[in-house]
Amino acid sequence: MAKQMTQLELLRELQPVAEENLNRHLGLSKEWHPHDYIPWSEGKNFAAMGGVDWSPEQSNLTTVAKAAMVTNLLTEDNLPSYHRELAENFTMDSAWGTWVGRWTAEENRHGIAMRDYLVVTRSVDPVALERARMEHMTVGVSSPPMEGNNLLHGLAYVTFQELATRVSHRNTGIACNDPIADKLLARIAADENLHMIFYRNLCAAAIELSPDQAVKSITDIVMNFQMPGLNQPNFRRNAVLIAKYGIYDLRQHLDEVLMPVLRKWKIFERTDLGAEGEQARTTLAEYLDDMGKQAARFEESRDRALARDRDRQVAV
């Protein structure tokens, strides 16, 4: 059986890859400014400044778009937790530390822009939004407990999570039916894609270093994957709406997030796995097959529910 690499060994061996991909990211990322994406002329004072406080009729967003925007924003808000997790996994030394700082700064920009948009356009209740932010950040997030939680688990998780976030932001922008929101969230989704590529490349290099260990960690993450917004107020209600209306559902998670990355890593084509890796890969294949069946059942159920909704609207 191949020797298991320690966290320190992995960090040392992957450091040149981290540096190379940091430089790649800095060369590809484009500078942008949140204030350029906000319709400031739509803004009005709230009651504390002599204006009028928020009321539901002021929002031009549908219930689904509001649920998706708030879920995405609160997810971005929990940045201190994510920064801590990355710093503990990667260390703050050399290119690892530079990446953690750069990634944190870019992600913070997303929350700034989304909150400015929602408050200026009065799309959601700002008091409820702030209370939810306080509650969610106080609870924070941490990696799901699993045996041997390590750097490889972390790299696999953030690869899938960044891609999932890109899909969710992009579809949320479309659901808002507002060209300003669409442009803003497309810009944020482009950042998330570059972040995903950084992590995907690091994980690919880790697979080459320790195939069995890496495939086992990837399988663990796929089977225990949770979106980082899980601890948000009303998360389950909002997640049902988001899935029902096609912003982010199990089929998208499988077809647009998991499978493209697994294909890129050539997980099911590798010939360098030992017994542990082969067992993990078999488990992964069975899990993905079952997920496909679950996705099909969900789609059938959703189609029936949406048809009933349309029938009720026609009857009214």
Automatic annotation (TrEMBL):
Signal peptide: none
Cofactor or coenzyme needed: Fe(2+); Fe cation
One term under GO cellular component: cytosol
CDD domains for the chain: Acyl_ACP_Desat (cd01050)
Residue positions binding Fe cation 1: 76, 107, 110, 192
Subunit architecture: Homodimer.
Pfam family, one: FA_desaturase_2
Keywords, sorted A to Z: Fatty acid biosynthesis, Fatty acid metabolism, Iron, Lipid biosynthesis, Lipid metabolism, Metal-binding, Oxidoreductase
Similarity remark: Belongs to the fatty acid desaturase type 2 family.
GO molecular function, one term: metal ion binding
Cofactor binding summary note: Binds 2 iron ions per subunit.
Binding site for Fe cation 2: 107, 162, 192, 195
Organism for this UniProt entry: Rhodococcoides trifolii
One GO BP: fatty acid biosynthetic process
Name used for this protein in its record: Acyl-[acyl-carrier protein] desaturase
